[in-house]
């Protein structure tokens, strides 16, 4: 009897072990994952300057893809890391995620100052990197990186568009011949600001504009009064500004207090893209300021997008409102990261798995090089196409990306340029109600 | 190039630059006063001083914007909170490290810096917040405008130096504080309760941080990392003026700010900071005890 009971217990025990083993094996078979290191600035000055909103956009998209059952049998396993607004931390985190966490690829990056060194490092480690945000041309230009891809617009395009907008509207709106337009370019002195300012300068020279000042400054400078005084001395009609925050609000505040007057101010993304906060900190003085950025996904006509994308845009908006209750103007930052992440999950990753059989860097690279999305095929409206090997000095850069010029009026965001997408006839020069009006 | 320089030199805007330098000096002087007082008496550098200012800014912001408290009352509360923080910093941390090696004291206050930053981030988030109060500006001519906030900072900094000087020179407590700053050991032998005096000094230093916070909150957005913009400069001003020498620190703030604004006016803005830092390094070679330090 005793040996029978023992045998029974042994059989039950073995059965339990077998069931447990079978369940684990089953779970492994059904639970393929792609581990993605997601790096943004969750702390430090860049976090409030727009990075936390970009991080939110990427997270919303990752959660959305997982809620749809993942991609071709792979669930997304994100490992979020904080670059702390410091390039050296971004590099360390990228290496840690690759070497210790064994991620399959990296996604994200807000600051160009981080992107420039991290892209080179990740490429040398032969890992795939998908940039959602940072825009400096220096990240890709002349580096021939193999595994780094950026669906995002690059900085020189930002700089060129604002000047193109001025060239087309100076005479008709301000009564000034573009060749006589006095333009000042001011920018934070990192790769982001320098890249955009380079685009500004090249385009201003191309159109023969009168460039009265071009100057960089540190985004953490505690005082910009000398810069404002110089601007007053140079008397520009238009100021082209590229900055993060809090330098933007400091500049606007000191400009108002020191009596700087101009006809137009055009910002270029980053701090200028956090509309809600600009209105909170500067108040209605921010009215009629322009901002160059990829378009806010909520401003696009849903009918201009490929089928199914309008629902994704709505989903991103709903999740944004859940995460940040009380937001009055949705920031373009959230939609930007969500759209650029969506391109990877809906186009590149499925092709890598189905056509190239995996999620290794080589398969992802081959899949990315075959991306061919027409205009209207992304949440941001523009298409996606990367240059073929050896065909560009900016390998990995989306050649179909384009920004727009937006204008803030009465806590609302409108598209002012290009003409085809206009939702407002641009208000130029600044109306007399503005404290900066010349 | 030379013509551009001459034009800039004889322009009315150079006058504005000089005045702006003075006004920025007022802000920096106010920031350095409390730090200098604490070092002069307790002989410990509070690396976390700018973070106490940051917490003062948050206090004023929440009481005024969210709590609807009148600005003056919110400022008074802000000064009270930072005075308590100063008192607590000494009571809970510095008090135990008075005999420790200077590097350990620095590490402890450095740790507090990260603690205050991290705590503010967890509690208040990373968003930039603004008081939304503008005092406007004073128009001296069609081209020259002076910020009322900065004029106020300058006046208050000058006023606080005078009041503090009088307090230290004429009051009984001030005399005790001066005595202890001259010889910490002997005062104990003479029956003075040094602990009380240290706590009082820390509270006064903290209160001055609250005053600086009030004026910064009128000019800058509040966020957990604002201390990074001011901490290093404040420390350098104190060193340049002679650590512990309040009048020296006050004057050094103006030297520093004029270098920043004049350099930034004639060259690129960043060159102003380069000039100020080069001057600081050079002054450390010539007078390591500080430009305005008294000879011992």
Overall body shape of chain B: globular
Q: Report the end-to-end length of chain A measured between terminal Cα atoms.
A: 103 Å
Architecture of chain B in CATH?
Answer: Orthogonal Bundle
Unreliable spans of chain A are 17-29
SSE pattern of chain A, N- to C-terminal: HEHEHEHEEHEHEHEHEHEHHHEEEE
What fold name goes in the CATH topology slot of chain B?
ABC transporter involved in vitamin B12 uptake, BtuC
Helix-strand pattern of chain B: HHHHHEEHHHHHHH
CATH class of chain B: Mainly Alpha
Radius of gyration of chain A: 25 Å
**Number of helix segments of chain B?**
12
Give the averaged pLDDT of chain B, no decimals: 90
- Percent range for β-strand residues of chain A: 15-25%
How many runs of DSSP E, i.e. beta strands of chain A?
Answer: 14
What is the total number of structural domains of chain B? 1
Description:
Helix content of chain A is 44%, strand content 16%. With 438 residues, chain A is an alpha/beta fold. The termini of chain A are far apart. Chain B is mostly helical. Chain B has a single domain, classed as ABC transporter involved in vitamin B12 uptake, BtuC (Orthogonal Bundle). Helices cover 74% and strands 2% of the residues of chain B. Chain B is built from twelve helices and two strands, in the order H-H-H-H-H-E-E-H-H-H-H-H-H-H. In chain B, strand 1 and strand 2 form a beta hairpin. In chain B, helix 3 crosses helix 10. The longest helix of chain B is centred in the N-terminal third of the chain and has 31 residues. Chain B is globular and about 65 Å long. At the A-B interface, helix 2, strand 7, helix 7, helix 8 and helix 9 of A face helix 2, helix 6, helix 10, helix 11 and helix 12 of B.
Looking at this protein, list some descriptive labels.
heterodimer; A: 438 residues; alpha/beta; Rossmann fold; 2 domains; 14 strands; 44% helix; globular; B: 296 residues; ABC transporter involved in vitamin B12 uptake, BtuC; two-stranded antiparallel ribbon; 12 helices; 2% strand
């Amino acid at each position: 009897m005793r040996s029978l009971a023992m045998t029974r217990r042994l059989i039950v025990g073995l059965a339990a072990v077998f069931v447990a083993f079978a369940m684990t094996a089953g779970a492994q078979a059904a639970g393929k994952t792609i581990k993605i290191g997601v790096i943004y600035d969750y702390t430090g000055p860049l976090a409030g300057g727009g990075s936390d909103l970009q991080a939110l956009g990427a997270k919303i998209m990752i959660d959305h893809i997982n809620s749809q059952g993942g991609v071709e049998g792979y669930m997304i396993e994100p490992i979020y890391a904080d670059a702390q607004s410091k390039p050296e931390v971004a590099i360390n985190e990228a290496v840690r995620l690759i070497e210790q966490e064994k991620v399959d690829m990296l996604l994200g990056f807000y600051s160009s100052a981080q992107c420039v060194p991290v892209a080179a490092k990740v490429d040398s480690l032969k890992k795939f990197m998908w940039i959602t945000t940072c825009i400096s041309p220096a990240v890709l230009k002349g580096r021939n990186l193999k595994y780094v891809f950026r669906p995002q617009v690059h900085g020189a395009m930002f700089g060129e568009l604002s000047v193109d907008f001025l060239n087309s509207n100076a005479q008709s709106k301000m009564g000034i011949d573009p060749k006589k337009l006095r333009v000042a370019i001011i920018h934070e002195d990192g790769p982001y600001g320098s890249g955009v300012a380079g685009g500004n300068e090249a385009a201003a020279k191309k159109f023969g504009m009168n460039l009265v000042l071009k100057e960089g400054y540190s985004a953490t400078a505690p005082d910009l009064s000398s810069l404002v005084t110089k601007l007053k001395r140079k008397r520009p009609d238009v100021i082209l500004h590229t900055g993060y925050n809090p330098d933007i609000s400091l500049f606007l505040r000191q400009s108002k207090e020191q009596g700087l007057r101009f006809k137009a101010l055009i910002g270029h993304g980053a701090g200028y893209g956090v509309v809600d906060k600009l209105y909170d900190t500067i108040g209605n003085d921010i009215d009629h300021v322009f901002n160059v950025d990829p378009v806010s996904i909520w401003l696009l006509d849903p009918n201009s997008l490929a089928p199914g994308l309008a629902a994704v845009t709505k989903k991103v908006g709903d999740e944004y409102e859940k995460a940040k209750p009380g937001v009055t103007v949705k920031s373009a930052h959230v939609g930007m990261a969500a759209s650029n992440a969506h391109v990877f999950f809906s186009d590149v990753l499925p092709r890598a798995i189905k056509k190239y059989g995996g999620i290794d860097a080589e398969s992802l690279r081959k899949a990315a090089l075959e991306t061919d999305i027409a205009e209207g095929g992304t949440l941001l409206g523009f298409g996606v196409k990367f240059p073929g090997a050896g065909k560009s000095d900016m390998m990995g850069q989306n050649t179909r990306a384009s920004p727009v010029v937006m204008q803030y009026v009465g806590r609302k965001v409108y598209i002012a340029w290009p003409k085809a997408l206009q939702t407002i006839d641009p208000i130029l020069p600044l109306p007399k109600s503005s404290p900066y009006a010349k | 190039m030379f013509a551009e320089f001459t034009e800039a030199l004889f322009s009315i805007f150079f006058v504005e630059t000089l005045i702006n330098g003075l006004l920025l000096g007022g802000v920096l002087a106010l920031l350095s006063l409390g730090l200098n007082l604490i070092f002069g008496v307790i002989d410990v550098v509070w690396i976390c001083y700018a973070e106490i200012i940051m917490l003062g800014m948050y206090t004023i912001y929440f009481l005024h914007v969210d709590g609807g408290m009148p600005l003056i009352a919110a400022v008074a509360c802000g000064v009270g909170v930072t005075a308590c923080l100063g008192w607590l910093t000494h009571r809970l941390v510095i008090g135990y490290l008075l005999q420790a090696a200077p590097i350990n004291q620095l590490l402890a206050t450095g740790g507090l810096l990260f603690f205050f930053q991290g705590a503010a981030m967890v509690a208040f988030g990373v968003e930039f917040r603004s008081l939304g109060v503008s005092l406007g500006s004073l128009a001296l001519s069609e081209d020259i405008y002076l910020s009322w906030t900065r004029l106020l900072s300058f006046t208050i900094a000058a006023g606080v130096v005078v009041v503090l000087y009088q307090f230290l020179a004429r009051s009984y407590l001030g005399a005790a504080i001066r005595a202890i700053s001259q010889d910490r050991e002997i005062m104990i032998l003479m029956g003075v309760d040094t602990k009380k005096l240290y706590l009082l000094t820390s509270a006064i230093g903290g209160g001055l941080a609250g005053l600086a916070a009030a004026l910064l909150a009128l000019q800058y957005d509040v966020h957990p990392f604002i201390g990074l913009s001011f901490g290093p400069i404040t420390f350098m001003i104190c060193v340049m003026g002679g650590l512990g020498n309040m009048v020296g620190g006050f004057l050094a703030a103006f030297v520093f700010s004029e270098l920043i604004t004049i350099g930034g006016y004639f060259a690129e803005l960043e060159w102003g900071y380069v000039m100020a830092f080069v001057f600081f390094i050079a002054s450390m070679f010539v007078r390591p005890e500080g430009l305005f330090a008294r000879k011992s």
